[in-house]
Automatic annotation (TrEMBL):
The keyword Transport applies. Gene3D superfamilies: MetI-like. The complex is composed of two ATP-binding proteins (CysA), two transmembrane proteins (CysT and CysW) and a solute-binding protein (CysP). It comes from the Bacteria. It comes from Ureibacillus sinduriensis BLB-1 = JCM 15800. Signal peptide: none annotated. One of its GO terms (cellular component) is plasma membrane. The lineage of its organism: Bacteria, Bacillati, Bacillota, Bacilli, Bacillales. Keywords: Membrane, Sulfate transport, Transmembrane, Transmembrane helix, Transport. This is Sulfate transport system permease protein CysT.
Length: 278
């Protein structure tokens, strides 16, 4: 053990392994663990029956289904189109490429409330886009998916893009020279290299969508049991000074999100291990 620590200290570029590790743990404890632990501590003030009555209320259960379902749908959409956008930006040269590349980061810089107002204006029944459809887009779960897709797209693009840049077109040319078709090259050469980055981008977009409030609240309609997301229920309880009820629902979201992200990380580890052994 001592030999390992000495070797690590010798080979590291930045000195002070013990100090930097201690600072890392202290920083994470103050910024991440302490605020999250307060959610559980506030929830402990409730009895089990009160806690179950709060989290299992039909209105809360409907919001869980809506929040997780729309976040999952938006994540899948972003995986498909985000990967295509990253491919176009890396593999092709065209006029206005820098502008398109900059537009990808727009959801990062744009305030979420502004995005929500803009999307609600576009997709409302009388909006520029919504008026051309026979069905409602805004104030429905479909509108929520559009908003979550908008704010989650950069995570997939910016995660896949560096991997594509390092991949290079030489691998595709080598695969073609060996007689592989385009489909075989895509399925057996490109996808295995991109899959870990795609899973990472999906998990980031999914986690971001679960907690989104600003852009969704304007386009959702906020109808209980239909288009009311869980973050809105939490905000409503806070406005009613029901802090314990808000933390109880937040605890459910926190635990469910942690379990889902843990499963995604396990899948990512498995894919990395599987393709590294091939």
């Amino acid at each position: 053990m001592e030999l390992t620590l000495k070797k690590r200290k010798k080979n590291t570029i930045i000195p002070g392994f013990t100090m930097t590790l201690g600072y890392t743990m202290l920083y994470l404890s103050i910024i991440v663990l302490l605020p999250l632990s307060m959610v559980f501590f506030n929830t402990f003030s409730m009895s089990w029956s009160e806690f179950w009555q709060t989290i299992a209320h039909p209105r809360a259960v409907a919001s869980y289904k809506l929040s997780f379902g729309t976040a999952l749908a938006a994540g899948v959409i972003n995986v498909i189109f985000g990967t295509i956008i990253a491919w176009v930006l890396v593999r092709y040269q065209f006029p206005g490429k820098r502008i398109v590349d900059g537009l990808v980061d727009l959801p990062f810089a744009l305030p979420t409330a502004v995005a929500g107002i803009a999307l609600a204006t576009l997709y409302s029944p009388n909006g520029w886009v919504g008026q051309f459809f026979d069905f409602k887009i805004a104030f429905t779960p479909l509108g929520i998916i559009i908003a979550l897709t908008f704010i989650g797209l950069p995570f997939v693009v910016r995660t896949v893009q560096p991997v594509l840049q390092n991949l290079g077109s030489e691998i595709e040319e080598a695969s073609a020279s060996l007689g592989a078709t385009r489909l075989q090259t895509f399925a057996k050469v490109i996808i295995p290299e991109l899959l870990p980055a795609i899973i990472t981008g999906f998990s980031l977009a999914f986690a971001r969508s679960l907690g989104e409030y600003g852009s969704v609240v304007f386009i959702a309609g906020n109808m209980p049991m239909k288009t009311e997301i869980t973050p809105l229920i939490i905000m409503t309880k806070l406005e009613q000074y029901d802090y314990v009820g808000a933390t109880a629902i937040a605890t459910v979201m926190l635990v469910a999100s942690f379990i889902l992200l843990l499963l995604i990380n396990i899948i990512q580890w498995y894919t990395n291990r599987k393709f590294s052994l091939q």
